[in-house]
Amino acid sequence: MKFSFEEKGQGKIIVLVHSYLWDREMWREQIDLLAKTHKCIAIDLPSHGSCLGKLPKNYCLEDLAKDIITFLEEKGIEKYHYIGLSVGGMLIPYLYEKVGNKIESFVMMDSYVGAEGAEKKALYFHLLDSIETMKKIPTAMAEQIAKMFFAVERKNSSNPDYVKFVDRLQGLSVEQLEDIVILGRAIFGREEKRESLKTITIPTTVIVGEEDEPRPPHEAEEMSHLFPNAKYIIVPKAGHISNRDNAEYVNRIFQTLFL
Asked: Using DSSP, how many helices (H) and how many strands (E) does the chain show?
């Protein structure tokens, strides 16, 4: 996999992996902050942002983790901190199993490594099947999807992030949508990985928006108790994209962790 990415700053390395359906620009405020003292590498997932490619039908989260590891190894990166939001966080068990000695700390945001519940899985797979059939994301569906990501007061047209996100969903090409459907099925059909968190001994911070609808706080709290060495932080007035809904609060957390 040939990832597109942004590299900014100097110093110890922080790798950032964004949410499904977003891209590395999601991290703009955090990159600008952390790059003052660290080298930030923000990666675009396949067919997100500028990353183009063709995924095999059976692509899974373990494959994605392997591809990211290969990408980092090819760049000669030996040690790094890792921040992952949503699917980015779901990769943490796989990354640790394969290269745990290279990772200095984890930040898991708005994520969950348990298997998807039956009701949510059915909803998400129905949306993916519809996208695959229509080969587009029409306006009504784009708005339905967008509302899952934001805090209550920000899931409307007065929020520039919401407007841009809806527009981006509608502008995805047929080729991008093919990979997005494959990756979506990998995410929402993921295997159960909660038990593996008990083996992750490096410092970990579990962060969740208090209004996160897809990945509610009780899931994050559950996982924080499974890690042997984890902090648990709730971001007020934030939904699934907590770093966008309340960037100032998240940046204060990152200042404590890294600066």
From this structure: 11, 7
